[in-house]
Structures are given as C-alpha cells and as structure tokens.
Amino acid sequence: MIYAVANQKGGVGKTTTTINIAACIAAAGHRVLLVDADAQANATSGVLGGERPGPDAATTADVMLDGVPLSRARMGTVVPRLDLIPATADLAGAAVELVERGDGREGLLRSALQSAAAEYRYVFIDCPPSLDLITVNALVAADRLIVPVQCEYYALEGLSRLMETVSEVRARLNPSLVISGLLMTMHDPRTRISGEVVNEVRTHFPGLVFDTIVPRNVRVTESPSFGEPVVRYDPHCAAAEAYQQASREVMSRG
Ligand SMILES: Nc1ncnc2c1ncn2[C@@H]1O[C@H](COP(=O)(O)OP(=O)(O)O)[C@@H](O)[C@H]1O
Ligand SMILES: [Mg+2]
C-alpha cells in the first residue's frame, strides 16, 4: 500500500506525520519504505541520525526522472525495517524538469515505485508544500492519501483546492486513490481555537478525520536535531503516543 502525505500548506506536520507513522509501522514488524519527495529533505535528515546522503547517493529525483532502480537508491535509517529514498536540493530542479517532460510526466513516480510492492508492505511519500507536479506524481503513485491539518485558524483554507486536485487525479490518472484520513496536528488543549478547528474540520469532512489528534509537544521540535522520529526519541511523550495510535488507525483503515 502506497500512502502520499500531502497538504500544500507548509508547516502543518506533513514530514513529522510521515516519518513517525512510517517508524511506528516499521516497529510493528513491517518493512516500510519512506520516499522523500520534498527538496527541503526534512524527512531525509529526520531519520538518518545526523548522517547525510553521500555525494554519490541516488535520490528521489534520480528514481523518478532517470529510472535509477529503488535498490540502488534506498538507504537504511536509524529505524529498523525502515528504508529511505532520500531527497536532496536537486529535487527543486526536478520539479522544473518535470514540467518540460511531455505525456506521462505525472506517472513517473508511480512507475518507479512499482517494484516496491514486492518488498515493502507500506510505502510513505512525504510531499512538498505545493500542488506541483511532484505532488501530482505522489498522488498518482498512491493508493491512499493522508492529509495533516494543523489545529489553527485558516486550517480549512486550501483544503478545498487539495480536494479538487484529488478529484482531478482520480478522474484522469488514478481512479483508485482513496483518502485514508485527515490527521489533526499540533493541537493545544489550552486554547479554545484548537478544539473549534477540530469540530469545524469534522463537520466539513464527516467520517474522514482520524479519531487520533496529535498534540503540540516540545519533544517533536527537539527530535529533528537528533535525526530521529519523536516515536524513537521519546516514545512515551504525548505526541509519540498519539502517532502510535494514529499508525494503528492507518493500518486498520487499510
Ligand atoms: N505535534 C507537534 N508539536 C510541536 N511541534 C510540531 C508538531 N508537529 C510538527 N511540529 C513542528 O512544526 C514544524 C513543521 O512541521 P513539519 O512536519 O516539518 O511540517 P511540513 O512538513 O508540513 O512542513 C516543525 O518545526 C515541526 O518540528
Ligand atoms: Mg515537510
């Protein structure tokens, strides 16, 4: 099963959600492949424990545009059973190069990930903060979409455009794309707005919002500097426990 984690808004918790749910599912005993599709490469640095991809490392851009096999591009991470196709800044150029490719340019990542199914029960793609051709490639490659939504004013802003994009992708390129769920992130129980936003999003998207709500937690902001998902960095903090629970929802939604 291939999951895209997308929302064109930046800073809503896409990367945090991707690496933590992927790490939890790996800890549950499954082989998981994490595909970093954002030129900022936060998912890459978030699972390598302070290492970086070497100068010869093949990246998501190479896999998508140059047909480099997954077996050559993947690397191990600090999480057992979790492998990574890394991103580097060259993905920014890939977005431009994709525009210049003709027919079939939306399906390149899908083709590149075809061979992953034999080895990885779960594949997670961390998308960039835009609805560009890289995100479209992720939506075309995916069976499921997870949308992190930050608990703040204007949370709904942009979601209708994302849903339109999902509809277009379904109509033209990938009829089997299903929304796994919207995951509310950075919830602060001390503020009234956090609860209001959750209710508002649940009203707008009935049945689509995960029961689990991820709280705002300082341990999440610390873990990237150690190159570890928070579920490893501090497995018992509130956010880590929420991601454990969210990963079980993801697995049970199928
Ligand atoms: N539950 C949380 N509690 C506190 N900080 C968080 C939480 N989730 C994400 N963050 C922080 O918010 C910022 C944006 O998160 P990130 O996952 O990088 O979002 P995106 O990938 O959508 O841009 C990061 O600095 C991250 O550490
Ligand atoms: Mg990100």
Give structural notes:
With 254 residues, the chain is α/β, with parallel strands linked by helices. It has a single domain (2-253), classed as P-loop containing nucleotide triphosphate hydrolases (Rossmann fold, 3-Layer(aba) Sandwich), CATH 3.40.50. It has twelve helices and eight strands. It has helices spanning 14-27, 42-45, 60-65, 70-73, 90-100, 108-113, 133-141, 159-172, 192-204, 218-222, 230-233, 238-253; strands at 2-5, 32-36, 75-76, 82-85, 122-126, 144-150, 178-187, 209-215. Strands 3-4-2-5-1-6-7-8 form an eight-stranded mixed β-sheet, with helices on both faces. Helix 8 (159-172) links the parallel strand 6 and strand 7. Helix 1 crosses helix 12. The radius of gyration is 17 Å and the shape is globular.
Short description:
By secondary structure, the chain is of the alpha/beta class. It has helices at residues 14-27, 42-45, 60-65, 70-73, 90-100, 108-113, 133-141, 159-172, 192-204, 218-222, 230-233, 238-253, and strands spanning 2-5, 32-36, 75-76, 82-85, 122-126, 144-150, 178-187, 209-215. The protein is built from twelve helices and eight strands.
Which keywords apply here?
globular; Rossmann fold; binds adenosine-5'-diphosphate; single chain; eight-stranded mixed sheet; alpha/beta; binds magnesium ion; 12 helices; 254 residues
